[in-house]
């Protein structure tokens, strides 16, 4: 008889099955599971759910059971042999279409684009070339306007609004009269911050194809408020807009190399008003081992697929780079809670 090993492969199986969890969540959104449950606030039986979603009863049952297993649907046994299924609090808040911080389209984007991108991970690692954008261009360059437009309109705004809301509540932006959102994407941060700080003005700077979408987004959602200025440009070549007490860099620096981080933040330092600050929002590693939190680890791997030179960093690494860029005071600032797009801030002052 062979010797029985004392270790088990179950930890490997748990990792291997991770994609099933991600796909089940995305497919549940795609099939309108949470919308159907929302229409039955006191809970629904499998049969009623199957009828409402036009699914076979057997697979509807397995879908609901699977979502209960993920912890995003709750079940209540009535003692009559009937079970009622309802949305969990998190599903009701983030997975029902039309809710303020609807996260479902972002999950679908993650499933559609992220999943395909990750299929090419071995090539990206072997060749040190980003592979996840269909035309082989890195996502950060957004050189495919049609694809970028579809992605941004459908998913990026609602996907980033919660992170923007956490950042708005975690740091007092009212120390400044105006904020420059550098690489601000399609305006989610401007919109969210504007709600929290009614007297702040904003300049959003991004590449032209993003600015077009931001213009649409801000004009349809801001009730025509003249608080948003949009500037199209390239933050490597064009002047960084001046006259702002805060320059926000949210999810920008991890896309770039150490040298680029120093160059870009030095350009921001030169542009910020005297007494002002740059606010860096990122998903930082906890410490120099760079093995936690898992969100930073996985985002770091994602940077292989999406960028030529990007990587996640510790707060300390950023502090060193910011000091090389000429910032004399860099403070770490905790968020009130970890958000999908950031787990902390750095406040750097010249
Ligand atoms: C990862 S996204 C972050 C968007 C937003 N700040 C957020 O936190 O969700 C990076 C942004 O940087 C912009 N960007 C990349 N390269 C740029 C450049 N050279 N000039 C201006 N914007 C650029 C992209 O268009 C994109 O909107």
Small ligands present: S-adenosylmethionine
Portion of residues in helices? 40-55%
What would the average pLDDT be, to the nearest integer?
Answer: 91
Q: Count the helices. How many? A: 14
Strand order of the largest sheet: 5-4-3-6-7-9-8
What order do the SSEs take from the amino end to the carboxyl end, as H and E?
Answer: HHHHHEEHHHHEHEHEEHEHHEE
Major pleated sheet:
7 strands, mixed
Structure description:
The chain is globular and about 70 Å long. The longest helix has 26 residues. By secondary structure, the protein is an alpha/beta fold. The chain has two domains: 85 residues, Orthogonal Bundle (Arc Repressor Mutant, subunit A), CATH 1.10.10.10; 246 residues, Rossmann fold (3-Layer(aba) Sandwich), CATH 3.40.50.150. The strands form two sheets. A seven-stranded mixed beta sheet has the order 5-4-3-6-7-9-8, with helices on both faces. Strands 1-2 form a two-stranded antiparallel ribbon. Helix 10 links the parallel strand 3 and strand 4. The protein starts with 9 loop residues before the first helix and ends with a strand. It is built from 14 helices and nine strands. About 2% of the residues have low confidence. The protein binds S-adenosylmethionine. S-adenosylmethionine binds next to loops.
In short:
By secondary structure, the protein is α/β, with parallel strands linked by helices.
